[in-house]
Design a protein that fits this description.
Length: 216
């Protein structure tokens, strides 16, 4: 069984996917982490987001994998924390728009999804990666609430940009994700919208679990 969870930045896809996978006994595939890892590798290699040839070679040679704890490795380096900075969030959005990156990671995502009962979260899971997913969820929340959550998360780790700056960054990323020419962020026609603006994490997980149970 495959569950696709799409939605804008900061809606809580990672947290909900992790909790839902644990509740259902599914494998959670963090597709966003794959794009962040590519963004990290490309930034380090100083490859521009419009350098299709360079990105094609980079992706073809990358050794990306998840371990049993869900951490992502780039070769022998655990990059789980390095890919979670605001800079890498922006880089992921830029590089995800490159056809060479999307094509290179598409087959990998599909292969991983077919290996077990899986939950995949991202921007285009239900529309492009797994259009035949058994359950499609579009998880969203208001910009103000997403900014509040993101700001609190960053502040807990140290000095953080202002709430207004975080909100502006989220709005810019939403625009970039929706307007990119390749696999833009959009709700699949058969996806169920779950608005998490005023819901707790447990309430969102319960709603998503109910959708899965109904599809079984």
């Amino acid at each position: 069984m495959i569950i696709a969870i799409d939605g804008p930045a900061g809606a809580g896809k990672s947290t909900i996917s992790q909790r839902l996978a644990a509740r259902l006994g599914f494998v959670r595939l963090d597709t966003g982490a794959l794009y962040r890892a590519v963004g990290l590798a490309a930034t380090r290699a100083q490859i521009a987001a419009d350098d299709e040839s360079g990105l094609h070679s980079l992706v073809a040679e990358l050794a990306l994998r998840f371990d049993a704890e869900g951490r992502i490795w780039l070769g022998e380096e655990d990059v789980s924390e390095a890919i979670r900075t605001p800079a890498m969030s922006a880089a992921a959005s830029r590089y995800a728009a490159a056809p060479a990156v999307r094509a290179g990671l598409l087959d990998l995502q599909r292969r991983l999804a077919r290996q077990a009962d899986s939950i995949l979260d991202g921007r285009d899971i239900g529309t492009v990666v797994c259009p035949d997913a058994d359950v499609k969820i579009f998880l969203t929340a208001s910009v103000a609430e997403r900014a509040r959550r993101r700001h609190a998360e960053l502040a807990a780790k140290g000095p953080a940009p202002s709430l207004q700056e975080v909100a502006a960054d989220i709005e810019a990323r939403d625009k970039a994700d929706r307007e990119r020419p390749i696999a833009p962020l959009r709700q699949a026609d058969d996806a169920v919208v779950v608005d998490a603006t005023s819901l707790s994490i447990d309430e969102v997980v319960a709603r998503c679990a109910a959708l899965v149970d109904a599809a079984r």
